[in-house]
Design a protein that fits this description.
The protein is mainly β and about 230 residues long. The protein has helices at about 5-15, 60-65, 190-195; strands at about 30, 40, 50-55, 55-60, 75-80, 85-95, 100-105, 120-125, 160-170, 170-175, 180-185, 215, 225-230. The chain is built from three helices and 13 strands, in the order H-E-E-E-E-H-E-E-E-E-E-E-E-H-E-E.
């Protein structure tokens, strides 16, 4: 066969018959900045009234909750469930405040009393002002009670921090303000060893299922979240 004809046939085959490249997944907004659509408080069908939408943020109004016991908050949970994902959001904590970003949550109140019975957590904290900041593996950015962040990169209390959680087929990474701070695996013997040495060791279902909901923790302190997006991997 003539070389030119062969080249033409190869080009035609490449154009018409080569497998299509998969399109990259798009970022999905989990918070529209105006409503709590897509979220509910754990054990409830909607977001508790103490979770207020203000100026494009989700704000747990702890002061209002304390002043009015009838005002419910609760750990906020996504309606949707995720398996392999890249989560990005910004958080701002109050002085001496505590909260957390919990993932792989099993939304089953009949079986689990709290979201942290099943889901690991990236700690959200005023590390300098809260007592947990004195505890190893409890500082802001830590994989709570499992792995300490490699560095403290939080901004001064009251300023916004960009958090990222990447769970990708057995590999887990945390980033805070653009810095890699935690890198580990999940589901393997190392993961089981981390749990066995933590406060979760007596919770038989903690960190066992690697698909679940994202939760923003109500720890009784004012906290704000915004620009919450996720990408399926």
């Amino acid at each position: 066969m003539y070389p030119i004809l062969t080249a033409i046939i190869l080009l035609i085959n490449a154009f018409f018959f080569s497998p299509a490249k998969p399109k990259p997944e798009k970022w999905i907004s989990l918070f529209d900045g105006k409503t709590t659509k897509g979220w509910h408080s754990y054990k409830e069908t909607k977001a508790g009234d103490a979770w207020k939408v203000e100026d494009g943020t989700l704000h747990l109004d702890a002061a209002a909750k304390k002043a009015n016991p009838a005002l419910k908050g609760g750990d906020l949970v996504t309606d949707a469930s995720f398996e392999n994902f890249h989560l990005k959001l910004e958080w701002r904590i109050s002085p001496k405040g505590n909260s957390g970003i919990i993932f792989f949550v099993q939304d089953n109140p009949a079986k689990f009393d709290n979201v942290w019975f099943t889901g690991p957590e990236m700690q959200v904290l005023d590390t300098d002002g809260h007592n947990d900041g004195k505890i190893y593996k409890h500082k802001a950015g830590d994989l709570y009670d499992l792995i300490a962040a490699s560095s403290i990169v939080t901004k001064p209390v009251g300023e916004w921090n960009l958090a990222e959680i990447i769970a990708d087929h057995g590999k887990l990474h945390f980033k805070l303000n653009g810095i890699d701070i935690v890198s580990t695996t999940y589901g393997d013997d190392n993961w089981k060893s981390l749990i066995a040495g933590s406060k979760f060791k007596d919770m038989p279902d903690f960190g066992k299922v690697f698909s679940g909901h994202v939760s923003l923790q109500d720890h009784g302190d004012d906290v704000w979240y915004r620009n919450i997006v996720i990408k399926n991997l």
